[in-house]
Design goal:
Layout: E1 9-13, H1 18-30, E2 35-38, H2 46-53, H3 65-69, E3 81-84, E4 100-103, H4 105-115, H5 126-153, H6 157-170, H7 183-200, H8 208-218, H9 224-234, H10 237-242, H11 245-262, E5 264-266, E6 269-270
Parallel strand pairs: 1-2
Antiparallel strand pairs: 1-3, 3-4, 5-6
């Protein structure tokens, strides 16, 4: 059984992470009370590993089955990471034994939609819910691989533009993915904003000519509908509250500097040797 919806929600997030941004955007949109705890991705604190993720080592003593289910994630130290139930948490504090703990942005979004069914995170209509999930699946399987490939691996521009074509095809003539705003929009908007920011500022490990081509294409008639969609998202106070472009650029440059020294942009994402100096 899920904890009572009046219990505290703590979400461990990183400002530069589009996966974290999905969750903070959704929480701000619905005004679900929550307490963010900010994590430095470059230097994750010991307490996060020991007191938050580390508590999974003794998860068999917990009454909630999700504690046991998340044991496999305990050494990964992923953000976002949601704790639901128990008192308000601060840095260095351990979640209580009856709390639900969930990694993975999409799982968190679905969980919030289920626990708070009147929040508007997903529509009540099963057909529209199916459309939202199909859109989300396309973001995960088509856009994100193309996003990573183009920005960090030197992949050709046509792949990412093609992925955006697919996502744009889901959009109705006006409004959001399923008409009204939902977690489908929260899933994609943080990534699209980061793509726009990096292309606009010439930041990334892509070929300069390809970057200019991608930026021009995104602002052409071909992608007029998706530009209207992102403008509609940016008009929402919840996105304004959770998106700081200058801060993101600063964090990106820090991460890029580390990546050039280590050869790794993120766990599992090694930079090709020929792109390290871009």
């Amino acid at each position: 059984m899920a904890p009572d919806a009046s219990n505290r929600i703590t979400v461990y997030v990183a400002t530069e992470s589009p996966f974290s941004h999905r969750v903070t955007y959704a929480l701000e949109e619905t005004k679900i009370p929550h307490d963010p705890v900010w994590i430095d991705l470059f230097n994750k604190p010991d307490w996060f590993r020991q007191n938050v993720h580390g508590v999974m080592k003794v998860c068999s003593s917990f009454s909630h089955p999700l504690a046991l289910a998340n044991h496999a994630h305990s050494t990964v130290q992923k953000v976002p990471y949601l704790v639901h139930g128990g008192p308000q948490l601060h840095e260095d504090e351990e979640p209580g034994p009856g709390s639900v703990r969930i990694p993975e942005s999409l799982v968190i979004l679905e969980y919030l939609a289920d626990v708070f069914p009147t929040s508007g995170l997903l529509p009540a209509d099963p057909v529209l819910r199916a459309k939202a999930r199909l859109f989300i699946q396309s973001v995960e399987t088509k856009f994100i691989p193309a996003f990573v490939g183009f920005l960090f691996m030197g992949a050709p521009v046509h792949a990412i533009l093609g992925a955006i074509d697919v996502l744009q095809s889901f959009l109705p003539a006006e409004g959001f993915v399923v008409g009204t705003w939902s977690i489908a929009d929260a899933t994609f908007a943080p990534f699209f904003l980061r793509l726009e920011t990096l292309l606009k500022n010439g930041l990334g490990l892509y070929d300069e000519r390809a970057g200019k081509e991608a930026h021009a294409a995104l602002h052409s008639e071909r992608f007029a509908r998706i530009q209207t969609w992102i403008t509609d998202n940016l008009a929402r106070p919840s996105l304004k509250q959770t998106w700081d472009e200058e801060h993101y650029i600063q964090k990106y440059m820090q991460r890029l500097d580390i990546a050039r020294k280590t050869g790794t942009f993120a766990p599992g994402l090694d930079i090709p040797a020929n792109l390290k100096q871009k």
